[in-house]
Amino acid sequence: MSTDKIISLLTDKPRLMLLIDASGAFITAFMLGIVLANNTKVFGMPKEILEPLAIIALCFAIYSFCGYLFARKYKMYIRIIALANLSYCVTSATLIFMNIHSLTSFGILYFIGEIILITIIAFIEWQVAKNNN
Length: 133
Hints:
The chain is mainly α and 133 residues long. It has six helices and no strands. The protein has one domain.
């Protein structure tokens, strides 16, 4: 399915966009707070960095899920989470560079993959918000 079709579908169902975002943020929080934090030798990112990132992701998940449950107008909710997601990506990229000496190949792959995926989601969210009235 093309990006344009996805944007069109989610523009018609903006509530679904918030549920997708909440699900992704919960997965990110789980990965960072449980999987990576308990395997720091495999990924190389210190636990002291992973735990706050997991808490941020959990906050994003709660925000998006509350928007999914309670919002009646979705444009501002989606715009805010799109900008929050982009700021998370900038933070993650900064932390990669600050900890490049300790990251393993798996850690670099994980964080770069996460940044790419979240950036794509944020782009779609921004377009959905822009097209939603």
